[in-house]
Amino acid sequence: MYEMIELEDVERLVDEGALLLDVMSRKSYEESHLPGAVNISLKELDEESAAQLDRSRPVITYCFDYQ
Amino acid sequence: MYDYVASKSDWFACGMPREGAAADVPWAGDLVSDDAPTCALDDRVGEVRERVLASGYDFCVVVNEERVILGLLRGDALSKDEKARADEVMELGPKTTPPSEPVEELLEARSSQGVKSFLVATSHGVFLGAMSRDAAERALEEHRSEENDEGSG
């Protein structure tokens, strides 16, 4: 289950070691992303690609906006 | 798992740091000035006109309590009956710019429109402030100059 969070929570969780996951396209990610974020686009996001992530860290996903 | 629902447009709108190929170019959100006049739907044109004259801008952004943009007062609208309400004379749905828009692309796209100021707003329409064309052109010039210096250094 996902927990929806706000900007202040992102800052706190990242300070505590959370991983930022940008699910936008590669092009969008390469243009701009949050500091330290890794990229797996929604199209590519599956069990295999998600297995690359460090499971010991909480993961914060984000895209472009509320859509 | 956490979901940062407001996502990167919210992050950038709040002036937080960024990375990526477009991170070093000036964005609209970097150049926002928060002194542009605003008013409420039921403010009277007369008082809005005074506010605009005192501000140095030639427009007033009509916003709600959450600063969501509802309309714009400028030009003839500011010369209307001073007792008229803002919502009776405002332009609906003024064009806005997201804070993450690189100013180079923005200036190119709207070069022929004679726009002196751009209204910068989040994807939810929250008014962040105005960016003047002059400020955008200056920032772009400085950025290009820095790039040239780096290239020749």
Number of helices of chain B: 5
The overall average pLDDT of chain B, rounded, is 91
Strand content of chain B: 15-25%
Reported for the largest beta sheet of chain A, the result is: 3 strands, parallel
Number of strands of chain A: 4
| Helix fraction bin of chain B | 25-40%
Instruction: State the strand order across the main sheet of chain A.
Output: 3-2-4
Global mean pLDDT of chain A: 92
Number of domains of chain B: 1
Content-based structural category of chain A = alpha/beta
Tally of helical runs of chain A: 3
- Which descriptor suits the 3D outline of chain B? globular
Ranges of chain B with pLDDT <50 over ≥5 residues?
Answer: none
Major sheet characteristics of chain B: 4 strands, mixed
End-to-end separation of chain A: 19 Å
> Could you please say which CATH topology of chain A applies here?
Oxidized Rhodanese, domain 1
Descriptive terms for the model:
heterodimer; A: 67 residues; Oxidized Rhodanese, domain 1; globular; B: 153 residues; CBS-domain; two-stranded antiparallel sheet; 32% helix
Quick gist of this model?
The complex is a heterodimer of chains A (about 70) and B (about 150). With about 70 residues, chain A is an alpha/beta fold.
What does this structure look like?
- Chain A is α/β, with parallel strands linked by helices.
- Chain A has a single domain, classed as Rhodanese-like domain (Oxidized Rhodanese, domain 1, 3-Layer(aba) Sandwich).
- Chain A is built from 3 helices and 4 strands, in the order E-H-E-H-E-H-E.
- In chain A, helix 2 links the parallel strand 2 and strand 3.
- The mean pLDDT of chain A is 92.
- Chain B is of the alpha+beta class.
- Chain B has one domain: Roll (CBS-domain).
- Chain B is built from 5 helices and 7 strands, in the order E-H-E-H-E-E-H-E-H-E-E-H.
- Chain B has a 4-stranded mixed sheet with strand order 2-3-4-5. In chain B, strands 6-7 form a two-stranded antiparallel sheet.
- The N and C termini of chain B lie far apart (45 Å).
- The model of chain B has no long low-confidence stretch (mean pLDDT 91).
